[in-house]
Amino acid sequence: MSDTPIIYRNPNSHKGDTSRELLSMWDESGYCRLKSCESRLSWWNQVGDVLLYEFNQEPQVRVPHKKDVNLGLFGNYKPEDWGLHWVFWGRHPRQLEKKISEGILPYDQRDTLSIWLGKIETSEQATHRTSQNWSQCVEYYSMDGSRGSFSQQEYLDMVSRSKFGLCLAGYGKKCNREPEYMGLGVVPIVASEVDMNYYDSPEEGVHYFRVSSPEEVKEIAEGLSQSEWNDMSNNCVEWWNKNCSRLGSFKTTERIIEENYG
Fold it and tell me: Is residue 1 predicted with pLDDT exceeding 50?
């Protein structure tokens, strides 16, 4: 696209430390221009044109009718009968970007085999995160506050020193951890309910492992050789750069629109 796109968003309708921070990063880099609007949703070109749906179908920001949208891109929740999978993002993408820029730690400098730092705030999270006992399958496990117990920098430092990261569904079937792990070269081990569908989806066995029980997590983490881990870790970083980085997420969004609009 030759012209710089305009993205309309309501600055007050979404928590500003995830997708909206990423949009701000796009604006800072000159990839797009941000403009405020009254709609609680985000739009490419103009309100009603290309929907950039960042939510998980929260009641206060329901998905518009298909007939009222020219193209719908969905980061987490996606209707069954229309729209396209989009990209997703980590928490505080600016800090994540900075941490990644400092360098990806090699295998022998990671002192934690596997990690899960999380919490439970909703009934949906409780269903996903307590249906099985995951506490014994990772080396460093905490369900008592996660990011509330550590600063974001401490959280990223801990994750970056891990070889594997457990993924359990969050507010939706996706969680910020998947992009965070892959950007830092941590190989994700995802529970059965976690949604790994993106426009450019990572591949099971190439970028991540899928498990149905805690026992499988330990078996994978302890059984993968260093060379196999190196290959998957490199694949993860490459995928993150293409789909979730500042430039990669914008380019992927632009490509989706070019390939599917009209």
Answer: no
**Cβ-contact 96, 183 below 8 angstroms:** yes
Position 12 scores a pLDDT of: 83
Rounded to whole angstroms, the Cα distance separating 84 from 24 reads 23
The structure tokens listed for 137 are 């399958």
pLDDT tens string 71-93 = 999 999 999 999 999 999 999 99
pLDDT at 194 over 90: yes
CB atoms within 10 A of CB 26: 19
β-sheet with 140-142: strand ranges across: 140-142, 112-117, 162-167, 187-191, 209-211
199-221: average pLDDT: 97
- The model carries a pTM of 0.94
Residue type, 151: S
Closest CA to 183 of 209, 165, 210, 205: 165
- How far CA 93 is from CA of 6, 18, 97, in Å, comes to 21, 6, 6
Q: How far apart are CA 213 and CA 193, in angstroms?
A: 11
Query: What is the rounded end-to-end Cα distance, in angstroms, of the chain?
Result: 14
